[in-house]
Amino acid sequence: MLAEDLLVLILITLALLLIGIGIGWSLRSSRIAGPKSSDGEVVPTSPAIGTEPQASPDGDVLSTLQSLHAALSHPEDLSTLVEGALKGISHLLPFDIVELNLFDRTTGHFIPHRLCSPRSSDFVTGMGDDVYRLGEGYTGWLVEHRESLLLPDVAERGDVRPKVRRGKFPFKSYLGTALTDRDEIVGTLELAHQEALTYDRHHQTLLEAASAAIALSTTTLNLHSQHQQCVDEFVGITDIQGAAAWVHEPETLVEQLAKTLATRVGVDVLCLLLYDEDSQSLIGQPPFFGVSTSVLTDDLILPSSPENPLSTIWQTQKYWISNAAVEEQLIDQMELRPFAEKAEIRTLLITPLGGDEHRIGAILAGNTDAESIFSEGDAEVLASLSRLCSPLIEASQKLTRDQGADETERVDPNAAGMILDSGAQPAEETPTGALQWAEALLRISAELSSSLDVDRMLERTLALTSELIGAAQACVLLLTQEGDSLQLRASFGERGPGSLQTDLEPREGLPGWVMSHNKSLLIDDLSQDARWKALDNDAQEQRSAIAVPIIVGDEAIGAMLFTHSEIGAFAPEQQRLVRSVAGQVGGAIKNAELYHVISDQAERLGSMLRSQQIEASQSRGILNSIADGVIVTDSNHEIIL
């Protein structure tokens, strides 16, 4: 193959690099010691294929980076992110074991997720469910020093030792780095090999670049989860209070509360059980959500004896999760097997009904799809909302008893049930060349993902991309908030930041054209193109250019412009590459904006939740202390209920 043809194929591949198309590789030489599910079980994974560990320091590196970026850009959940990160690193660097240790702030431990070669499987099996604590082994050193640790030969470094529970440490070469986001520890990313001198500074650079993206992706995923949890709690509280405002009859209130709770947590079946002191049993309160009342009524009269584990759960625990209900033996001991079988429950969540001081029963929430597993976030939301439900149920029962069955209030079912819905194969090339391209592109990806400072991110990305394609000057222009002009946000080259007009019309010049047409441009001779608008105070006349739009969603929010003083300085392959970078820039800008929006919303939601909880507490006190009824007035003392 001619060298020119080889370069074309390489650059086309690079142009497609880091565009999210999903994970499409198979693990050729390793097996996963999988991450644990929320109930502590090991997630099953595919068996090993092959017998020797092997990285891909050739053209496969490019497709690996593409897949790694896809896995980190839009992970469905933590398990997907971990699997994609481990597989990506295992194809990028040589390993016998690769370990992603994520920091659990609730326990202060680092939870390991591992990928290993067949010859290291016995060692990994012997590690069992062990976790890392601060100060322990290489992981502790990384966390303490917040820097990378490169040990070409582990025997030559006596001041830092690995943590080994039993047996000998079989690895002779080690490389690790701390995962941080804005100086906050996220975890560690570590590799080890059974042969000495496996890792060098180049491997360290690649690992550090990849770790920045993994750290930010993990933080963003956690933030999204926390934000959604806040939203679910807030909307749930609103819905519960809305139902309580319209419904006083216990059966209808139970129906609305069950519907609200099921909607907020996203479950197929939900039942409320109240404790009956006379029979010392938990009794299901129809109607149930997602299943016929006639099917389950007789199956939801459960003795609450000390021997029944269900008693311990609803009286003392915060929640209980089983994501394998069919095999769970405790369900038999709770006498819940008939319920689970008739409702076809595959995953089960149980929370108390009420707060720590006063619990009146339990909530059973289940899914009929084995893939719909419960997380601790789901349990936290349900447990939190249950605290609001219990006083309302008690107050409703009390009011109904005192007023008599004939005085049950009319129900507006519509208001009561209102829920706020919230290519081509990589070209062959030398290992060194492929790794150099990979390092450059990883650096760009790392710059885009390692900071939420948009201006700093744009400056660094412009510099790296310009060096990559040989541009003399470059700039990024973004629409103002009003959308009536393009503003210079970053520049590269001899021209200073103030030398470019910052009051360009959105459709003016090359930037305006690519934005309005959603197309990139490659111009060999700017003097022959009427769309070109010269830049002020250029050191010399610019003759060729690449211009690409920056797209977020379906909207063009700006443009990237790269120029050179020579005619025909750029090739079509570089144009495609720049467009790929622009796509990442759009995603990074969106992520930065989303991060701030979520942070602001979470803060506001927290304040609103506290206010709602105070109001709910006040309402509970009123409802519990007044037996003859409740009169509610507005700020003008007009009776509204």
What does the model show?
The chain is α+β, with helices and mostly antiparallel strands. The chain folds into three domains: 16-222, GAF domain (Beta-Lactamase); 247-413, Beta-Lactamase; 454-595, Beta-Lactamase. 43% of the residues lie in helices and 17% in strands. It is built from 17 helices and 17 strands. The chain has helices at 3-16, 60-73, 78-92, 121-127, 137-145, 201-246, 250-265, 293-296, 309-316, 329-333, 337-342, 376-403, 413-416, 431-449, 454-469, 509-517, 572-625, and strands at 31-33, 97-104, 109-116, 149-151, 173-181, 184-193, 269-276, 281-284, 301-303, 320-322, 347-354, 359-367, 473-479, 486-492, 521-523, 544-552, 555-564. Strands 1-3-2-6-5-4 form a six-stranded antiparallel sheet, with helices on both faces. A hairpin with a 6-residue loop joins strand 13 (473-479) and strand 14. The longest helix is centred in the C-terminal third of the chain and has 54 residues, at 572-625.
Summarize model confidence as the mean pLDDT.
Answer: 74
| CATH architectural category of the largest domain | 2-Layer Sandwich
Largest sheet: 6 strands, antiparallel
Instruction: Give the overall form.
Output: flat
Number of domains: 3
The helical percent reads 40-55%
Q: How many helices?
A: 17
Number of strands: 17
For the record, what is the CATH homologous superfamily label of the largest domain? GAF domain
Q: Low-confidence parts lasting 5 or more residues at pLDDT below 50?
A: 1-59, 405-438, 496-500
CATH fold call of the largest domain: Beta-Lactamase
Strand content: 15-25%
Strand order of the largest sheet: 1-3-2-6-5-4
CATH class of the largest domain: Alpha Beta
Distance between the termini: 84 Å
Q: What is Rg?
A: 30 Å
**Helix/strand/pairing category:** alpha+beta
